[in-house]
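Moderator note: this is an archived Q&A kept for reference. The question asked for a predicted structure of one protein chain; the sequence and the answer are reproduced below.
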Amino acid sequence: MFFSTLIDGLSLGAIYALIALGYTMVYGIAKMLNFAHGDIIMVGALTVYYSLSVENTVLSIILAVLLPVVICTVLGIVVEKTAYKPLRGASPLAVLITAIGISYLLQGIAQLKFVFGVTPETVTNFKIPGSIFGINWSTIVTLVVAAILMIALTVFVKKSKIGRAMVAVSEDRAAAQLMGINVNAIISLTFAIGSALAAAASIFYLMQIPQVSSTLGSMPGIKAFTAAVIGGIGSIPGAMLGGILLGIIEKIALSIPALAPYTVAIEFSLLILILLVKPSGLLGKKRNEKV
């Protein structure tokens, strides 16, 4: 029983970690909180839902896996170019309000009748059937693929030329620009990677909770942001750790009848407790602000 709960928690935590990576990368490099990130997940989920309506089963599965990643990646770049790039030198409050506006805009578009509507719909035939050692194949695939994606991202950031440019922009944007790094291109790429990871998270999320709605991304987005803050906003390993920790705690709380109604309260209480003890998060670094 506990082993099954732990595996489910790791699987859910991996989903939160993938979403949290988008938050933490954008904050670490662009120094902004993209609160529209949760709605990128919703767009990915809607793409999965419509892809599965294709009559050819094999084609529908292929589209449901590939199309969300493509659409969300492009959407992430478009949002960055049209909404955030013009505010590059603006105050953090202006950027924050814009992010919230983009979030409501995406939800509003999804709620239009000819796009999706306001009624939640069930996603059918998307869960991988069968299990091994009592663990669903959907859970195993989620864990394996999420682990591969997180390892690949870590290697990309640490070993590739573009990854090192991302680190440079994160450390000192002005100095990176003087060294010939195209800061705007790096920020756009960061949004693209974060949005692609959000699309992957939406696919795995629907494997666990096969219901899609125009507000689907709100709660997973908030929880993933919480995970990013717990781990240390701006830290890629911190986002992974925070996501896994939050997923395990959620599943354990849900498995205990006395705690189940208070699961969300427990998660956010954990956030408050960790910030009281370590304000920069578990793996976050205290930054000295330049005056």
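Archived answer notes: The first strand starts at residue 121 and ends at 122.
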